[in-house]
Amino acid sequence: MGVAYAAGINLPATVAVLGIADRAGWIGPLPGGLGVLSSVWIIGIASVLYMMEFLVTLIPGVASVWETAQTIIRPPAAALLAATTAYHSDPAVLVAASLLGGGLALTTHGTKLGLRYAVDTSPEPVTNGVANVAEFATVSTIAIFVWNHPYVTLSIAILVLILLILVVRRIIVTLRALLRGDLKRRAPS
Questions:
Q1: Are 138 and 17 in contact (CB under 8 A)?
Q2: Alpha-carbon distance 75 to 72, whole Å?
Q3: Is residue 27 part of a domain?
Q4: Does 189 fall in a domain?
Q5: Could you tell me if 86 and 97 are in contact, meaning their C-beta atoms sit under 8 angstroms apart?
Q6: Cα gap 5→107, rounded to integer Å
Q7: Residues contacting 76, CB < 8 A, separation 6+
Q8: Residue 187: inside a domain, yes or no?
Q9: Per-residue pLDDT reduced to its tens digit, 31-53
Q10: How many domains does the chain have?
């Protein structure tokens, strides 16, 4: 589930980090069919896709469109990654891993999408750049630590997800109030 969580945030970064970490021996062998991620070709393709995504999401407005389009890519791919970890398991476990992985990735991606919309309201690329670096740091941390401390990592990741949902909710409420002009009426004269 940690892989699906990270893939919901950024799929190419997750694939590249897992492949590099496996090749470098930073983590134990990847389970199931995930061993293919350590292929030089897969790492290369994922790295190029990540760099493209990083650059595209630096452009305000385009970042929101990009993240919206990723809604049809990340959850199914995360479900596939989750299923691949359970590839040699009982078919019921395989289906459960797919459903849970896709659902968790959809939730994570949806939260990230809301955050990206909020960040994208600033007309400069600095906040988008900071968001991209923070995203990569989060994905890298989850992808590597999940192998050594799976329950702790997943617990922290879920806690961060809940906090992000609350932050996104607050940002959306504030933006709606600002657009309605409610914030101006409440401000002291």
A1: no
A2: 7
A3: yes
A4: no
A5: yes
A6: 9
A7: 102
A8: no
A9: 878 889 999 999 999 999 999 99
A10: 1
